[in-house]
Amino acid sequence: MRVVFLLVPQVHLLDLAGPAQVFSTVRDLGLGYELHYVAEREDVPTAQGIPLRASANWPPLGVDDLVLVPGWRGHRFGTHGLLTGSTRARLAEHHRRGGTVASVCAGADALGQAGLLDGRRCTTHHDLQDHLAERYPAARVVRDVLYVVDDRVVTSAGIASGIDLALHLVATRHGPSVAAQVAREMVVYARRNGDAPQHSVMLRHRDHVSDVVHRVQDVIDGHFTERLPLRALAVAAGVSERTLTRAFGEATGLTPLRYQQLLRVERAEHLIGQGATVEAAAHAAGFEDARMLRRLRARLVGSPP
């Protein structure tokens, strides 16, 4: 998968570096990512004063590839970031052929110039939301959210929210476990949805800094369909069962067993949503029978931890 960053003069470093760090971490995990940096001119000044150098030549793009436009300095759209017709056409054509385009902060203006915001939900930094709505009246600007996804057009609020956007794209492509691993490597909270409660159990209960609990969650995440005695989890963490139970509860609000059950129920619900029978989904998720799944769904789904 290629991730192409389109750089505009006065680009904000964190708008670029946050998502770039996410995707480079995924690449380091061996998942076959290529990162490219392109611009209309090779020398790209940044808002923070560090000069960057990009390529004027775009790599070939396929439907699995992503083009991401980081934001740039400007109190209103139109002061910077005006793209040439050929660049706008590249963005529009990539999306038309089935590819994904994304933006951070003011980068939404680039997508607007390419006609990709018309009729779609989108967002940008809170200081620029009114300007985005004024400049692209056919767009449906969603205010005060981290990011918005609409038909392979992904826009984020800006600055650090670009990390959340990138983690969402990783979770969509590779699953929440990989996204959680990347978030842990980057020492950031893992968020999956920009405008709704987090739906992934793996991500929802990873917003802590307990290394002991993360190690146990790694074990449970990878083997939640199997029987996992508390003693074995404590050995994996290098602590006593009592210490593990206390630390796990403080970090997640759950017991290790409850966390495993939530993962099983979530997996079963996903399979049912894909057309599997309740019985087949129950067995695939690690339950002995469908009755146990039904009981846990009634007890756990929608209930407080």
UniProtKB/TrEMBL annotation:
<dbReference type="InterPro" id="IPR002818">
    <property type="entry name" value="DJ-1/PfpI"/>
</dbReference>
<dbReference type="InterPro" id="IPR018060">
    <property type="entry name" value="HTH_AraC"/>
</dbReference>
<keyword id="KW-0804">Transcription</keyword>
<dbReference type="InterPro" id="IPR052158">
    <property type="entry name" value="INH-QAR"/>
</dbReference>
<dbReference type="InterPro" id="IPR009057">
    <property type="entry name" value="Homeodomain-like_sf"/>
</dbReference>
<feature type="domain" description="HTH araC/xylS-type">
    <location>
        <begin position="214"/>
        <end position="305"/>
    </location>
</feature>
<dbReference type="Pfam" id="PF12833">
    <property type="entry name" value="HTH_18"/>
</dbReference>
<dbReference type="InterPro" id="IPR029062">
    <property type="entry name" value="Class_I_gatase-like"/>
</dbReference>
<keyword id="KW-0805">Transcription regulation</keyword>
<dbReference type="Pfam" id="PF01965">
    <property type="entry name" value="DJ-1_PfpI"/>
</dbReference>
<protein>
    <submittedName>
        <fullName>GlxA family transcriptional regulator</fullName>
    </submittedName>
</protein>
